[in-house]
C-alpha cells in the first residue's frame, strides 16, 4: 500500500484451512515478514484451537520493534531492526518496489 506502517493482514480462507487440516499432525505457519505480530498471533490462536498437535511458526524476516502482540516466531532466517524498510517479492514501500525479484532494504530516513 501507500503507507510506511504495517497494514496487518486479514486471514482469508481460514474456513477452508480448518476443514482440510490434519488435526492429528503438527502444523507449521510460514510467513515472509513478521512485523506487528498480528497475523501470526491470530492464525496461531485459531490453529491451536483447531489442532490436536503443536503449531509452529517460521518467518523469513523477523522485524523487531513494532510488536503489538506477545508472540515470537519459532524459527526465523533473518532478524531486522526498524531502521530500514524491507522491499521486494511482494513487500513494498509506499506502493513501490513490490515487483523486485529479490529482497532488499531501503533507508526511509532520506
Task: Tell me what the structure shows.
The protein is α/β, with parallel strands linked by helices and 110 residues long. It is 18% helix and 28% strand. It has two helices and five strands; from the N terminus they run αβαββββ. β1 (27-34), α2 and β2 (55-63) form a beta-alpha-beta unit. The mean pLDDT is 85.
Short overview:
The chain is an alpha/beta fold.
Features:
elongated; 110 residues; alpha/beta; 3-stranded parallel sheet
- Gyration radius (Cα, Å) is 15 Å
Largest sheet: 3 strands, parallel
User: What general outline do the C-alpha atoms trace?
Assistant: elongated
Count the DSSP helices.
Answer: 2
**Integer average pLDDT:** 85
Strand order of the largest sheet: 1-2-3
Summing up helix and strand content along with how strands pair, one would put the structural category as alpha/beta
Outline the low-pLDDT stretches.
none
Helix content: 10-25%
β-strand number: 5
Sheet-strand content, in percent, reads 25-35%
Distance between the termini: 20 Å
Run of helices and strands? HEHEEEE
Amino acid at each position: 500500500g501507500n503507507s510506511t506502517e504495517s497494514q496487518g493482514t486479514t486471514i482469508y480462507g481460514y474456513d477452508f484451512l480448518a476443514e482440510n487440516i490434519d488435526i492429528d499432525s503438527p502444523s507449521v505457519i510460514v510467513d515472509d515478514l513478521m512485523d506487528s505480530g498480528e497475523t501470526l498471533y491470530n492464525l496461531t490462536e485459531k490453529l491451536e484451537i483447531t489442532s490436536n498437535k503443536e503449531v509452529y511458526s517460521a518467518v523469513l524476516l523477523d522485524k523487531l520493534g513494532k510488536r503489538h502482540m506477545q508472540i515470537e516466531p519459532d524459527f526465523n532466517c533473518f532478524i531486522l531492526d526498524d531502521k530500514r524498510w524491507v522491499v521486494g517479492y511482494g513487500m513494498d514501500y509506499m506502493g513501490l518496489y513490490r515487483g523486485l525479484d529479490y529482497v532488499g532494504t531501503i533507508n526511509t530516513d532520506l
